[in-house]
Amino acid sequence: MRKLPRSFTNELMRKSFAFIALVFLATSCGMLKSSKKMKPRDGVVFYAKEYMGMPYRLGGNNHSGIDCSGLIHNAYKKQGIRVSRTVDLLRKEGKRISKDRAKSGDILFFRTTKKRKLTHAGIVVGRKGGEPLFIHASSSRGVIISSLREGYWNKTYAQTRRLIR
Description:
By secondary structure, the protein is an alpha+beta fold. It has two domains: 1-32; 40-162, endopeptidase domain like (from Nostoc punctiforme) (endopeptidase fold (from Nostoc punctiforme), Alpha-Beta Complex). Helices cover 33% and strands 24% of the residues. It has a six-stranded antiparallel sheet. The longest helix has 23 residues, at 6-28. The termini are far apart.
């Protein structure tokens, strides 16, 4: 059996190690998705969660800063669903449902000022203690997950809309 040159075996080992490390990194970080397609509701929540911790910026629409309607618009868009870019227009889309029927991917709307106008929105990500949990862009804390059990959000809650059947 012929022996390979040492430089060749070292290079082969280095490249093999780099390939294995890259595959491990990609799979552990979720970069390689399974071939199984996500349900639209799950996809919207998945893409919204990519913005967790991002700072709030009025009118923002990317990872350097985002507002509540930008978060919703981007999450739905990445799932291939077109929705309006503002809370005022979003409130006219889909079907109005009770908050008790809210599922992941539905949108909760709030009145955070004394005016009748809806001013804030978030995407339902699940339920805890019977109340919806939702992801949203908070003006003070950036993109976070909150609950309707929290006094402020319970008090300012206005309606729920379903855009995905």
